[in-house]
Design a protein that fits this description.
mainly alpha
Length: 362
Amino acid sequence: MIHDFPLTEWFFYAVRWLYGVLGNSYFLTIFITTLIMRLIQVYPDIKSRKTQQKQAALQPEIDKLKKKYADNPQKLNQEQNKLMKENGVGCIAGCLPMLLTLPLFFCFLAAFRFWGYEQTVKLTYETIENPALAQETYESFKFLWITNIWQPDSGFAPVVTPADTVATYGNGSGCSCSNQSSNIGNLVLLQDGYTDLHGNYVSGEQIWNAFVENGLATGAYSKEAPKEGEASMQLLQTDDARKKYDELMSTYKKGKNNGWFILPVLATALQFLMAWLGQRQNSKLNPEAAAQQKSMNMMMYLFPVMSLFICLSSTSAFSLYWVLSSVFQMISSTIINRFMRNKAPAGEIIGDDKLKIGKTIK
């Protein structure tokens, strides 16, 4: 939506633009977008792994400090921080991949949600005005075993968004940082219109007027947010409007299962696998530190569980993005690990001999 969180808006416009450039291919759009985002995260990932190597080389000196200041935790903390600072080891660098992944996860989740909103609104409009074209659009939503890529890959999900869900569009259901985003008129589709599969331009006003004339919406079309006291644009806000929507969209056999849970299960499995591989890699680099942080590493398993629930309730398009992102991350991690193993081993550190680890790990 327009006026939503800026990063979400940018991602949304980027995927819509890429979709047009790639010949209206959802899969290619998601594939290229995922690849670009993974490439952006390669550099922070390399920095993180270099930090892990440095931490592994520092571990013997840290163990000496723990023995020396066993009865003085405050002094131990000071000396440990000093040692890490002198050798250019920082905690933030090691957390960079996670710091990048989480914001990207939620911004893309919101962007794909808004894109799904638009596709449902577009399908509804075409079903009113041109059922034959609407059927073409609906067929374009199919992906392998999934009937509608804008619905969850779930055996319990209908193939068309239910009226109760459509009624929440523009009701603050996205990741918003602006009250203006609660206006349904802020959907980019209703602001800028769109070009259909036959190359015909349809304005946002045409879409809205068709909804109003068919009893699905109320309120005058406007590109501006409603002023205080003015009636806003409302979609399916009455029982009668929702009933009309359900009757209109019944042609798509709403009771049919949309998918078979494949993408959510894949996303979860890949996230668990990456967590396990990451833990294994850390154990190889620094067995003692890895053992001490075992309880913290268990937190990494919460993200796969979260991914399962999000993918079960989000569009299949987002689930596909998340699966591809995990696959690309595993491939890039394997390449980076091999590259790092071929580098010179960690050297001497600042200790009694006053030599820096940075001489061999740059």
